[in-house]
Every structure is written in structure tokens, then in C-alpha cells.
Amino acid sequence: MTRDITTETEAQEFLEWNGPDDPTPEPEGDEAWAPVPPTRSLALALLEAVLTPSQRRRMLREASLCVVVQAPSPAWCEPLRSAFRSIGQWAHVELRDGTAKYKRRPEEGAAEIANALAGGVRVLGISPSPETQLPPCLVASADIRITLPRPTERVIRQVIREATGSNPRKFPAGIVEGLDFPDIIACIRMGTTAASCVHRLQAASLSRGATDPSLADAPDVTAMHGFGEAALWARNLLADLSQYRAGHIRFDQISRTLVLASEPGLGKTTWVRALAKTANLPLVQQSLSSIFSSTTTGGYLGDIAARISKTFADARNISCPVLMFLDEIDALPDRNSMDVRGRDYWTPLINLFLLELDQSVASSGSRIIVIAATNHLDRLDPALVRPGRIHPTIRIPRPDAAALVGILRQHLGDDLAGVDLARMAGFAVGATGADVMAWVRDARRVARVAGRPMVEGDLLALIAPPDHRPEIVRWRTAVHEAGHAAIAWALGQERVTMVSIVPGPNRGGVTMTEDIVIDVRSRSDVEGRVITALAGRAAEAIFGLGYNSGATDDLRIATRAAASIHLSMGLGNSLLHRAGPDEIVQTLILDGALRKEVSSDLDRLFAKALLLVEEHRGLVHAIATTLMTVRQLDGAGFDAIVAERAAAPVPEGRRRG
After folding, report:
1. Are residues 26 and 161 in contact, defined by beta-carbon separation less than 8 angstroms?
2. pLDDT tens digits for 484-495?
3. Is residue 297 over pLDDT 50?
4. CATH: 1.20.58.760, 1.10.3720.10, 3.50.50.60, 3.40.50.300. Which one for 471-655?
5. pTM above 0.85, yes or no
6. Which of 233, 343, 310 is CA-nearest to residue 279?
7. How is residue 570 annotated by DSSP?
């Protein structure tokens, strides 16, 4: 018998770990043990481990029978066909594994199979995804449905014993993790020992579990900053995967679906890549907008359907747990908001997508983790994000100052070691992780061109560049932001966390607040938000600066809030819900009477904003004057100005505006 351990030292080390093989008792009488190759025994051993006595009897005795088998992966389909032939004859075997050899549309061959079943013969269907690959008539008429899991320790032990004549003494948990049919049979070799088979299986499993090379540049997900609830979800997943790999929990006990929602640039894709790397998971990534793009599919229904099926098949065909990332999931439209013509085109595609998703997430034996991402949460079909499909939903916020310190340090690496980044992070509040990455990249280029290491000023000049705007423009911006901040404080609904006139992408200044109380709001509460949004414009008017045409975001926020009073909140003259957040603008365009009503509300609330700014003119002036010097105030700096200006609390009657 040939041993495949190459040196005496290696053999001794391996035996110390695994011990000698347990010999299988020799058969009595003249019967001698004969080795069985794993190519013949593995699929049969798995099948025998799963079949119930009732199913076995039916397969041996019934002349008319339809059996549908879900294989663990495409590689198992051919061996399973041979295994089934050992327990009965089959008049027709339909094998479809998605590979070029057996790739057919589900409806192809349906008539032939229906005729065979009608003729009372035995028909067998084998596929990794019966619902999406086998003819519907075969799946629907199955007398026996068998879902085969990955082989258990007991199955592998049996195959090793049949190939080598002995049992391994020890069998590490998860030894075939990530291994497909060809991997397993390549490790279990006749003419070697049971212990060496275990050794090869363990080495192959470790190799398969190695990090995807394409994720080499991804950070550790536990070291990332600014992801809020998503960070906790990631930690829970990592803990559950560790328990699963140790054999303590089943895969279906893991919370393994998630929708990530945020505005662009907040790092959804980077976070998913980092999670895959940290968890040692293969990553299957697909943008749904590219699937439905006419430039990639020609817009033909069949081509798009094929790409949907391939996306999920690619994930299912990976033998170990896999992370499937569906980016731009909002490219799959909400059926509740489409017109009749669109519904005729999209309904079959949406139904196919949901079917494939169910097969990948909810079916027994599935080991796929699905994370979807969107910039437009309100556009998603409710059927897609309900519990049981892709759930829960976690919103990624813009990073606060503390998170920005961590993000800056992550991208800086060894650069600016020892530098306190808090001041720069304060100037960067309102920025995204993508902004930080660009700043650090550009600062490194500045230092490289200068032929020296990066210094703090290189980065600060990008985060808070010198303000070359005319002084009147800077003063107008300071007054505008001071108006927002002062009135937010005066109304008592929000806490001011930052006021800045540092220029940023698409803005000249910014005021950031957080809710003091989050609850169901009255009409006066909503109108308070409108007043705060209009307070910057009001401050410019009170200080004789005219109006800033660049403050379009303020008008957008105010208009949408005022319209929502009538369209969705039931706080106007009707309880009728007429529009969601995404439909407000279109409804205003189409409804002239509503436009007049909302415009009247805005005029009335702007008049209140003017009165409030006049009342707090001194506070607005103090904030604006300070901003001209320091450029940015954090929450503590703002509170200090308020405390200096207001010796006593604002009377409650005045705080409501």
C-alpha cells in the first residue's frame, strides 16, 4: 500500500495529530474486502443517507414514478444519475445543471416528458435548481421530491472506509467546507490511508476558504467607521459564521440577508467587499442596472431573464458559503407604481427574480448570504424587502466627526502618524467616505510632486481650502447659515451640531442639526421645519443682502415638507393619502389647486421666518460674525454663543414660532 506522506518526520507529526487508522473488521468466510473508488461511492452514499425507507421502497417497486432531485451543485448531477441507476431503472432521465452540455430553457422537452409520464413510466429529473432549470410539468408532477445537502461527516467516513479499508480516528468539524464533488473525490484515494485522506480534505478545505484575491485591498470590516447599525450586523454575522463553521449552529439559523440604503458615496460597496474579505467568503457581485440595461441585453425579455438566472446560478454553484451582492437593487421596479404597459413587460422578470431569490435564500441547503444596496429605498417593491426575502433594511448615515477621524486614519495609513485629526474631521463634517478617499489621494500627490512626505497642511488645504470668495459673498453665506442655526434653536425642535461656511461640493456653507425629540409630529412641528429651512433666506432679507439664488436645497426641502402636510400626512384639509415622498413633485406639477395652497403656506411661513429672524437678530449677527473668523462652529461652539446671548431660557410661547 502506497503512503502519500513524504517523510518520516511528516508522517510522525501527522500520526500524533490524527493517530493510526481504525481498521475495518475483515469480512467473515471467503468474502474479501475490495476497494470502491469514491467516483462510484460518494453520490450513492449521500443518496442512501437521505432517502427514507418509504422513498426507497417506492423506487424499487413502483412502475410509474416521477422523482425530482435537487443536487448540491452542478458537479453532483452526473454522479447522482449513476447512483439512481443502482437503485432502479429509469425510462427517462432529465439532467439539467446549467452547464453548456445540459443547458436548455425550462420549457424545452416538456412535451416529451409529459408523454413519458402519461405513458406510466419512471422519470427522473436532476438539477441544482429544479424550479428554474427543469420543465415545470416535471417539477409540478413529482411523486417524490428530494433535496440533497452537502455530504455529512458520516457520509465522508463511509466513502473513506470503502476506498481505503479503514476509518480515520479523528475527523475535524467542517472538513469538507467549500469542497465540491471533484474536490472530495480527488482527496479520497484508493491505495492510501484513511488518515491521509482526511489530511488532504482538510488541506483542500483550507485552500478553498482562502480570501478571494480580488479582495486583497479591502479593509477589515470591523475596523471601518461610520456605518452605524451595519457595523453591528457585520459583527453578528461574523460570530454566527464562526459558530456555523465549528458545527455549533445550522446555516439557516444565521441572519443572512440585508438591504443597505444610503445616498451615493457613503461606502456601501466598500463595506460589502470588506465584509467578504473579513468573513473569508467568495463574493458574487452584480449590478441590477447592468442586467436591465439595453446596451448589455438588447432589452430582450429572454436575454434579461437568462442573465438573472445566471447571476443566481453563479452563487448557488459555489460549494461553500458565499456572499452575493446585488447593487442598485432599485433597478427592479416597484410593481405598485408602474403603468399597465410597463407591468406587462416587468412582471415576468420580477417574478423570475423573486423565484430565483427564494431558491437562493429560503431553500433548504442554501448557503448564500444576500446583501442588496440602493440609493433609493422608496423605489423598492415591498415584496422584495419583506421578511423572508431581503430583510432587514439598514440606512447608512453620513459620518459624524468621530467617524470621520477613523475614516481619515484608515485612508492615511502611516501618513501623518501622531497628528490629531479631530480638527480636520470637524471641517470635514458633511463629507462622505468617498470625499475623504479623494482628499487623501490628492494630498499624497501634492507631497509626491514636492518630493517630501505628506504634511498636515497638504490635507487641510483640501478639506478646508482657502476661501477666495469676495468678502460680501462670505458674509452673505455666514448670515444665511446663522439664520438657519438661530431659528432651529429658537423653535426648540432641533439641536445644532455644526454651522460652517467652508465651501464644499455643490455648497457654500452648511448647517447640521439633529432631532431633540423623535415622535409623531403635529402640523405646527412640520411647519417649524419649513420655517427653519426658509430662515436662511429670511436672514439675508433682514440684513439687507437680498436673496441667494444658490440656496435651492432650502426651497426644495421647504416645498416638499409643506406639500407633505396635504399629500401624505393627513394634516391638511383631507385625510386622503395622495402621494409618497417620491411622488410629491409630480403631483404638484399636475395639480394647480394644490400648487396654490402650498405656495400660500410657504408665503405665510416665510413671513413667520422673517419675524423670528428679526426677533433674534442679535444672535444671528453674533453667529455670522464668529463664522467670518473661525469658518466653522461645532455644537459646543454654537451653544457657547447662545449661552452668551441668552442669559435666560427662551419662553415656551416664543419657541413655537
Report:
1. no
2. 999 999 999 889
3. no
4. 1.20.58.760
5. no
6. 233
7. S
